[in-house]
Amino acid sequence: MLWLRDRALSLDRPLLMGILNLTPDSFSDGGRYLDPEKALKRAEEMVAEGADILDLGAESTRPGADPVPVEEEKRRLLPVLEAVLPLGVPVSVDTRKPEVAEEALRLGAHLLNDVTGLRDERMVALAARFGVPAVIMHMPVPDPKAMMAHARYGDVVKEVRDFLKAQAEKALGAGVPQVVLDPGFGFGKLLEHNLVLLKRLEEIVALGHPVLVGLSRKRTIGELTGVEVPERRVAGSVAAHLFAALKGARILRVHDVAAHREALAVWHALWG
Questions:
Q1: What is the pLDDT of residue 162?
Q2: Structurally, how many domains does the chain consist of?
Q3: What is the C-alpha separation between 52 and 46, in angstroms, rounded?
């Protein structure tokens, strides 16, 4: 089970986390949902399509992205968070800033999604104080702007696994009720690193915590398929995520909820 404040989601089948980017510069849909009304409409669409969780982010963490000031991130995020909370599905907040996380959790966010892997002790303390799970993601350095310069590994699976294990133990020891592990596909990783991580995903699943995989529309999918436009990488994204589900992933972070829900329905009938 994934315990989210006053509710619990079964992990008997993979859950779909719908991506809602409240940014002008995200790699796939930057600028599309900056307007709160458009963001709410997209959130409603994803819920109707079968999203189990909504993941709101107001700062792009694509390679080379510039940081967003705290107050600007709050301005983008908090009104939309308030608007989507009544939709009836848990809401995750994708932020690396404790100041943003605290206000989002006060409003009622159910899950903290930290791309820097809870390196900041204040993020650990917030998840513990509000009693919410935290997604711990691997990135070689806690700066998206510089991460690709550090895409060097001996055994990428071992290094990612060791980092996630250590951060999970630290968080749980500090009172965070539950952790979700994210290998961080594309974050400081080249195509070959992403493929090895996906092929050996069971080694991360074996740590015993729910594993989240987010390959939706990413460069890796484009490199494998030859599809240059991110919005057209739906089929490749679905294929990668179904493979991840077979390997034990229990949360899939996706842009295209309907396509993934249909694919998972067939997958579950045949395999689940």
A1: 98
A2: 1
A3: 9
